[in-house]
Structure formats: structure tokens, C-alpha cells
Design brief:
FAD/NAD(P)-binding domain, Elongation Factor Tu (Ef-tu), domain 3, globular, binds flavin-adenine dinucleotide, NADP, Methylenetetrahydrofolate--tRNA-(uracil-5-)-methyltransferase TrmFO, EC 2.1.1.74, NAD, MnmG-rel
Length: 480
């Protein structure tokens, strides 16, 4: 038996299971609280609107962990980094993989049952089936809240109270995000409306894409005709006027967008200063690195397959590469950049002797792998605290570090009244950029069209190298 007091992990999904595993393998006891399977007041077992079983780490939709290619794909890189950090989720996914080409897809039942068994049989983990409805007034001094996009209502109310008004969202209304380097700056230009300086003193904070009347009309037709995703019954989204889907705005009248987010006023095209554009699409810088721009006002329910086709009709975006497409979903997530510190702790409780960490999708990452990765780091941070060790976040050149950076500081606020922080998948745009190489390791010239791929490979190699150094350094600290 150990005399180290336990860390309480709430939510036995992907992030909570991974966090528990990391804690327990560091020698710290864990009490994992999962509400699914606990009896509710009407005698039936509690569940969520999306889960089907009581298994830990159940995959609620697709069975894919996406690309497993670490050299050229950011999520594949994240897989590799997690494997190097003894991830339970990755070990079980590898063990239960099914053929899926370059992707890592799993047998969902085999995968979830393997995670459940590993957690239940770990001598330092106790699983309690109950809905947690309070985060304070308990004797818990170290907590990881990993309750996911479908956090129960009672706990959401508690999180809202602790985090403060406006810091918990129940829906994500996501505008597409574009890799800056894929925007054609021979057509687009940088300028803020009326050259108004932003908080950073920059009067050219936006990238503007001009449209003629014919281009605007063709765009509206494509928007209205494009296939839209259906809402699930339980997912009906109350539209707020500040974040109406762009196609809903267009349905209200063909001119609505020209008087809304696409209004062509206060902006002058330096290449054609005397000609007024009929409409202008604006993109706003999304991350401190300047590698990503989001399309202002373009939150949408257009199906993913249709979005790239429709948005590439916009002059300047014909070859746009999307770091993420738009969407509108039920999703509980906190405004992490404002309320969490770099070690994923709720800042406002740090002085009260309670370490309340958040992990998983609720922190504003998106996807099975990303949620698990943040669970892994939250578990390691909490373990280091319990054992009196110092632990820094992984460098931002790694996929893990880039994700932490995104949720705790890398995102740039847009100055709108509503926060612009929205959940994000891992992508190379979150990592500090590198110049695309012109020659390969053997000094051979790399053809122009292959340089983007070569750059991804360099970024992946840098990431794994830096992760290894960071792991060595952390190991030395423990050993010393
Ligand atoms: C409908 C839907 C479909 C999705 N499809 C995909 C997809 O195809 N691919 C993808 O990569 N991502 C998908 N996601 C996004 C996301 O990656 C997953 O939801 C992922 O499971 C998030 O991991 P998590 O650990 O943060 O949350 P979860 O895996 O949801 O785990 C949270 C756990 O907390 C428990 N819990 C909640 N409240 C309490 C409480 N008060 N007390 C105790 N336990 C509680 C829940 O029962 C659950 O087990 C989807 C999300 C949703 C909602």
C-alpha cells in the first residue's frame, strides 16, 4: 500500500482513462469516477446522448484515429509521440487495429474493452461508478476533470460557476481555418477595416479577399445549393445572432452577407484602389505564430466534403488548404486560454490549495487522439505535483507541446465581444514554421510541388528529436 493520497479523475472516456494510466504508472493512486453504468434516480443506468456502453474509452462515432503516418501528417506525429510516452490509448489502439490503409482504425469493442480491463486491473486505480456533481467542498485536493463534450448538466453548472460567466461554451460554431501560406497574396491584401489599429497596434491585421458581383452571385448560389449536415435530435443548436451559420444568413436574402461579414466598406484594394469590390471576405489571424487565419463569420453546417469546393470559389482562396473546416456541434468546452495555466490547472483555484486540472475535449482540443494526448499530459502534470517534482510542458515544436500551447496561450483573440477560441485538431499550422527545404539530404534538388511535403517531414523530425531531448531531461530530473 502507498501513503500517497489519490488524485481524483472525473470521466472515464479517452482523456480520463489515459490520465489515470499515466498517474498510476508514476506510482500515484487514482480514483476514477465514471457516471456511465451508475444507477440514476429512475433506476436506469446513467449514460450520455452518444455513448452506447459502459466501457471506458468508448469511441462515440467513427472507429478511426486518422492517419498513422508520422512523417507527413500531424496526427500521425501525435500518435508517435504518445507511443513514446507509454500511452495506454495508443497501445490498445495498436493491439486492436483493423485494416484501414494509412489510417489507424480499431475494432471499437476490442479497443474499449482492452482499455477498461487495463484500468480495472491496475493495482493503483479504483473505478467508482457515479456522477460527480461538485468540484469543491470535498477533501479532494488534486482533480482532473475529463468529462468531455457531453459533460453532465449538474457538473457543467458547477464548472460554469467556477470558471466565470462566458468561459464555458455548450456549442462550437466554428469558422474554417486556413493555412496562411496557401492564401494567394497576389489577389488578397492585408488591411484592417478603416485601418483601425488592433490591440497589438497593427492596422493590417486582416487578410482581405475581394469579389466582383459575378463572383459574389456564384458564391451565394453555391452556398445555398451546398449539402448541409443534419443535427441529431439532441443536438439542436440555438442560433445566436452573433454566430449564425453563413448559409442561414444567405437564406435570409442574397444581399444579407454583403451587409454583414462580407461588407466591402472601409477597405481599399491596393492593386485597384479606384474600383470598389462588390463584397470582401476577411480572414483574421488565429494563432500567435501567424500560420493560421480564420474566415470571419463563416461558421457553417455545410457538409465537410462541400466546404472546400464552395470556399475555394473565393478569389485568393482558390488553392486554400484548410487546417480545419467549419462546423456547429453540441460541445461543452471551456475558454482554456483565459482560465487555465500552462499546466492545465484552473488558475482561480491555485491559491486555494486545490489543483483542478482539465483534460480532453473539454479543454478545446478536438478529436479522439488530441483528447487522449491532453489526458496524458494532465496525468503526468498531476503525478509530478503529487511526487514533488517539477515538470515543464513539452516544447512547442512537438505536436504535444503545440496542442498545450494552442489551448493555454497560442490562440489570438479577435477582439470581438464573443471569444474566438474554438476547438481544434492537431495540424502543422500549430507548430512553429520552418522554411521548405530546396534540396534533400543527398543534396538533390526537391521539385517545387514536393517541397510542402518535405517541410512537413522536417517538422516531424524536429518534433521527435525535441520530444526525445525533453523526455531525457525529464528522466534525468527524476533519476537525480
Ligand atoms: C457525437 C460525437 C461524435 C464524435 N465523433 C468523433 C469522431 O468520429 N472522431 C473523433 O476523433 N472525435 C469525435 N468526437 C469528438 C471527441 O474526440 C470525442 O468526443 C472524445 O470521446 C473526447 O474524449 P474525452 O475523453 O474528452 O471525452 P469522452 O470520451 O466523452 O469522455 C468523457 C467521460 O466523462 C463522463 N462524464 C461526463 N460527466 C460526468 C460526471 N459529471 N461525472 C462522471 N463522469 C462524467 C462521460 O460519461 C464520459 O465517459 C465526437 C464527439 C461527439 C459528441
Amino acid at each position: 500500500m502507498t501513503d500517497i493520497s489519490p488524485v481524483h479523475v472525473i470521466g472515464g472516456g479517452l482523456a480520463g482513462s489515459e490520465a489515470s494510466w499515466q498517474l498510476a504508472n508514476s506510482g500515484v493512486p487514482v480514483i476514477l469516477h465514471e457516471m456511465r453504468g451508475a444507477p440514476s434516480n429512475d433506476g436506469r443506468a446513467i449514460t450520455t446522448d452518444a455513448h452506447q456502453t459502459d466501457d471506458l474509452a468508448e469511441l462515440v462515432c467513427s472507429n478511426s484515429f486518422r492517419s498513422d503516418e508520422w512523417q507527413f501528417n500531424a496526427v500521425g506525429l501525435l500518435h508517435e509521440e504518445m507511443r513514446r510516452m507509454n500511452s495506454l490509448i495508443m497501445a490498445c489502439a495498436d493491439k486492436h487495429q483493423v485494416p484501414a490503409g494509412g489510417a489507424l482504425a480499431v475494432d471499437r469493442e476490442g479497443f474499449a474493452q482492452a482499455v477498461t480491463q487495463a484500468i480495472h486491473t491496475h493495482p493503483l486505480i479504483t473505478v467508482v461508478r457515479e456522477e460527480v456533481v461538485s468540484l469543491k467542498n470535498t477533501d479532494w485536493d488534486s482533480i482532473i476533470c475529463a468529462t468531455g463534450p457531453l459533460t453532465s448538466q449538474s457538473l457543467s453548472d458547477v464548472i460554469l460557476e467556477l470558471s466565470g460567466e462566458g468561459h464555458l461554451s455548450f456549442f462550437d460554431a466554428i469558422a474554417p481555418i486556413v493555412h496562411t501560406e496557401s492564401i494567394n497574396m497576389d489577389i488578397a491584401w492585408r488591411q484592417s477595416r478603416y485601418d483601425k489599429e488592433g490591440p497589438g497596434g497593427d492596422a493590417a491585421a486582416y487578410i482581405n479577399c475581394p469579389m466582383t458581383k459575378a463572383e459574389y452571385e456564384a458564391f451565394i448560389d453555391a452556398l445555398l445549393d451546398g449539402p448541409k449536415a443534419d443535427f441529431k435530435d439532441w443536438e439542436h443548436v440555438p442560433y445566436f445572432d452573433g454566430c449564425l451559420p453563413i448559409e442561414v444568413m444567405a437564406e435570409r436574402g442574397r444581399e444579407t452577407l454583403r451587409h454583414g461579414p462580407l461588407k466591402p466598406v472601409g477597405l481599399t484594394n491596393p492593386r485597384d484602389p479606384l474600383v470598389k469590390a462588390h463584397a470582401i471576405v476577411q480572414l483574421r489571424q488565429d494563432n500567435a505564430l501567424g500560420t493560421l487565419y480564420n474566415m470571419v463569420g463563416f461558421q457553417t453546417k455545410l457538409k465537410h466534403g462541400a466546404q472546400a469546393d464552395v470556399f475555394r470559389l473565393i478569389p485568393g482562396l482558390q488553392n486554400a488548404q484548410f487546417a480545419r473546416l467549419g462546423g456547429l456541434h453540441r460541445n461543452t468546452f471551456i475558454q482554456s486560454p483565459k482560465i487555465l495555466d500552462r499546466k492545465l490547472r484552473l488558475k482561480s483555484l491555485n491559491n486555494e490549495g486545490i489543483s483542478l486540472r482539465f483534460a480532453g475535449q473539454i479543454t478545446g482540443v478536438e478529436g479522439y487522439v488530441e483528447s487522449s494526448a491532453i489526458g496524458l499530459l494532465a496525468g503526468r502534470f498531476a503525478a509530478a505535483d503529487r511526487l514533488g517534482r517539477d515538470m515543464m510542458a513539452p516544447p512547442e515544436t512537438t505536436a504535444m507541446g503545440a496542442l498545450i500551447n494552442h489551448i493555454t496561450g497560442g490562440h489570438l483573440e479577435g477582439g470581438a465581444s464573443q471569444s474566438t477560441f474554438q476547438p481544434m485538431n492537431i495540424n502543422y499550422g500549430l507548430l512553429p514554421p520552418l522554411e521548405a527545404p530546396k534540396v534533400d539530404e543527398n543534396g538533390q534538388k526537391i521539385p517545387l510541388k514536393e517541397r510542402g511535403r518535405a517541410k512537413k517531414r522536417l517538422m516531424s523530425l524536429r518534433a521527435l528529436n525535441d520530444l526525445n531531448s525533453w523526455l531525457d531531461e525529464s528522466f534525468k530530473k527524476v533519476a537525480g
